[in-house]
Amino acid sequence: MEGMDMSGQATPANINEPYANNLATIIASVICFLTLRYFFVHQTPRASSPYKRLENLVVNKFSYTPFSMSPPVGAFLLVCALTSAILPLLLLNVDLKLNSNRAGFLSLAIVPFLLSSTGKNSAVSFLTGISTTRMNFLHRMLGLALIVCATVHMAFMLQAWAKFPSFMRSQLQVTKVQYGLAGYGLLCVVILGSFLPIRKYCYELFLGTHLLGIAFIGVIAMHTPYAMRYFVAGLVCYALNLVAVWGVKTYMAQAYFDVLPEGCTKISIRLASPMKTHAIGQHINLCIPAISIFQWHPFTITSVQQQNAKYQNSIEVCVIARGNFTRALYNNIDASKGLPVFVSGPFGSTNIKSMDILTNSTSVVIANGGAGITFGIRLLRELSDTLVTFDDNCEEKDTLNHWKTKDIYFYWSVHRINELEWFRDELEHLNHLFESHARFPNLHIKLHVTSKDGAGDASARPNLEDSSTAHSSSDINERVDGQGFFDTKRNSQYLEKKMVEVTQGQRLDAKYILSLQTDISAYVCGPTGFNASFKNAVASLSIKKSTTVNLHCEDFSY
């Protein structure tokens, strides 16, 4: 039984270290490539334009979802890539029955990257620019790879010992083995606490089980002296990330609330210290101690960037009641009182710029599904604000035919008609604003209500219990100045309205929408199935050679 006694020095564990280092090198090389790509795209926007077009084409193709509610093709490719990196290193030049420590070493090599990708704003996310949602998927895949390798290590070891009961009993008395079994047990608890039902309905349990990861690190460090060289690297990255987030990107603030129909809470946040600029699609992580002192949740910033402002003093987010935290907020908040909150951010890509959109695309499609409106309304606000600012500061001859964009199509699909009240007033204001300016692109706003109930009243306002809760961003401006919304003093026409088209009992047809325009920049945000319909439309639609579709699917942060 040479090579299996974990209590002595007979186990040649060091012969497995090069394989673990090779795995760490492979993953680190991928991160370095993504970091260089992120730097290249953001620091040299003009030089990287051809690359971005090629990358966008590849991403759109790999975003195809073959089955309803299944992950996209790109997710399967990521799993395959991770498997192809681990499997050869696991099986090369080894008999796992005699040396299952190979799998254990590969588990250790994964730990630093698992720790580096932990949290709402991880170190890997900071380096690569990968969004929180996508990074969370990678984190879960790394966690799955870790538990699989650890299970292989334990299973082959125990299977070999089981053939010799007396030997197995003696090994189980060894302190090193006991630490190993305890570490594996803690890891299993962490994995079980990560299942979707627990994450969604009992976040405190999810958080508590993840804190056991600290105990796992300590126990495995006692199990094998080779562990700490891997653990230290991950812990340093995680510690630096915590220091950066709390020291640089976390703010104390005062929040004011407006409760709207169908589970929407608009939160106007006045920051105690100013925040640097934020971009379209970026989000903040918000903690409301009155609701939960442990939970931080991401919410898309809906207020626009303040013109000519170096720092932002206040922001707005919209919270849609979907989980325990958001439902508790909607049901229990007192809209007449402000509450102290903690804000961390902004996080996310800064690639989307309204000026670039208006100068590079003939048609702009903004498609929103349900709470995905939080991204779409911010984008439409930024486009409108850019147009108004340029129109005010330039002479008529300068604004004539200045923009390449001729049409902006804004779609919003909801399940219940009352959900339209979240932003219907503002959309009607914007509809009138665009129509009253001949030099603006044509704005086409089309709202879809998938429920067939009350089809005959689709174009009429629902009878709300408290109509005063439905308000536009201009109302918030009056209460929280400096919010970065439309300056109503600049254009009194913004207060006027034009009704928008509402279609009831019909879903958005992504393929039909994308086939109507040419040279399209499409920005999509909604539930998984909603985004997948547009990804599939781009991947499968036979579009004319003269037509290009630049599809950007935003992560869903409500």
UniProtKB/TrEMBL annotation:
Q: Where are the transmembrane segments?
A: 20-40, 73-92, 142-161, 181-198, 205-224, 230-248
* Chief localization: membrane
Q: Which InterPro entries match?
A: FAD-bd_8, FAD-bd_FR_type, Fe3_Rdtase_TM_dom, Fe_red_NAD-bd_6, Ferric/Cupric_Reductase, FNR_nucleotide-bd, Riboflavin_synthase-like_b-brl
Which residues lie in Polar residues bias regions?
465-475
Boundaries of each FAD-binding FR-type domain copy?
235-353
EC number(s) recorded for this UniProt protein: 1.16.1.9
Q: Which reaction does it catalyse?
A: 2 a Fe(II)-siderophore + NADP(+) + H(+) = 2 a Fe(III)-siderophore + NADPH
Q: Where is this region: Disordered?
A: 454-482
The record's Pfam families line, in alphabetical order, gives: FAD_binding_8, Ferric_reduct, NAD_binding_6
Q: Where in the cell is it found?
A: Cell membrane
Matching entries from Gene3D superfamilies are given as: Nucleotide-binding domain of ferredoxin-NADP reductase (FNR) module
Tell me the keywords, alphabetical order.
Cell membrane, Electron transport, Ion transport, Membrane, Oxidoreductase, Transmembrane, Transmembrane helix, Transport
Q: How does it sit in the membrane?
A: Multi-pass membrane protein
Annotated signal peptide: none
Q: What class of enzyme is it?
A: oxidoreductase
> What is stated as this protein's family in its record?
Belongs to the ferric reductase (FRE) family.
Q: What is this protein called?
A: ferric-chelate reductase (NADPH)
Species annotation: Mucor flavus
